Amino acid sequence: MTPITVVEGRRLALSNLDKVLYPATGTTKGEVLHYYAATAADVMLAHLRDRPLSFLRYPDGPEGLRFFTKNPPPGTPDWVRTAPVPRRDEPEARQVLVQDLPSLMWAANLVVEFHTHQWRQDTPAVADRLVFDLDPGPPASIVECCAVALWLRERLAADGLSAYGKTSGSKGLHLLVPLEPSPSDDVTAYAKALAVEAHGAQPELAVYRMTRALRPGKVFVDFSQNAAAKTTAAPYTLRAKGSPAVSAPVTWDEIEACGAPSELVFLAGDMEGRIAAHGDLLAPLNDPRRAHPLPAG
Q1: Fewer Cβ neighbours under 10 Å: the N or C end of the chain?
Q2: Keyword annotations for this protein (predicted)?
Q3: How many Cβ atoms sit within 10 Å of the Cβ of residue 99?
Q4: Is 257 helix (H, G, I), strand (E, B) or coil?
């Protein structure tokens, strides 16, 4: 029998709680749900709320079937809010909003990575944050990503912008910048210009073109996730990898000191202590006082 749990007045059927999702660590689905409910919810919801979501679903674990979905899954409860996100091929399209603990736990029960747009549902295609996805091409690793991140931090600071970092939860690093609301096309253009500059300043380390042949041993400075249609792995989401790795906020001291990839790998079990020690390192992203205008030109 599927257990029924009441979360803030909403009835949820939580299924297959003993199912092992991450064989490398023996992590079960019940432990995944506990991570979202007891560890991540308070800090994570601030980064999900009002942002239409896409899901990478992996119901049988990272080694099983994985599929990406933008539309609300079949059986979505009527109390889970959705927002219109028109697409060329689907003018009536909608996406899920995770606004509270019940909707977070409903989505987590589907076994998903949470991916968000850089804009909120009331201002489509008007971004309030900028993102760089720093993706290393082997044998480069997150160590090289940190070197590129430090250059980007200084370059952004020269334009009056503050950057905050998190691990991707995979191989790389994400930089995020709070902005006063700006058209997504303008944010993308600015991010591309800085990616080109990063390549010019560190040609042995950074590339801005997606061409695979250019990427071995270098860091791809991916600016494309600023496009209105794109999404990025949300802070604190678990990733569909071999272990329950988290897209975890990190300090600039940690980025500066990183000398080995293992130093910036954080699993679900690490996060309670990190949150207790640091709070939400990405809280400035949701503080309008920290947002600055996108530089002109």
Answers
A1: N
A2: Ligase
A3: 15
A4: helix
Rounded-to-integer distance, Cα 217 and Cα 198, Å: 15
Low-confidence ranges of the chain (pLDDT < 70): 1-2, 297
Tokens of 122: 């009331």
Task: Return d(Cα 147, Cα 238) in angstroms, integer.
Answer: 25
- The tokens 């919810």 sit on which residue? 41
pTM above 0.85, yes or no: yes
- Distance CA(257)–CA(76), nearest Å, equals 44
3-state secondary structure of 77: coil
φ, ψ at 95 (rounded to 5°): -130, 160
Tokens of 104: 């977070």
Token pair of 20 as six digits: 């092992």
Q: CA–CA separation, 198 vs 176, rounded Å?
A: 16
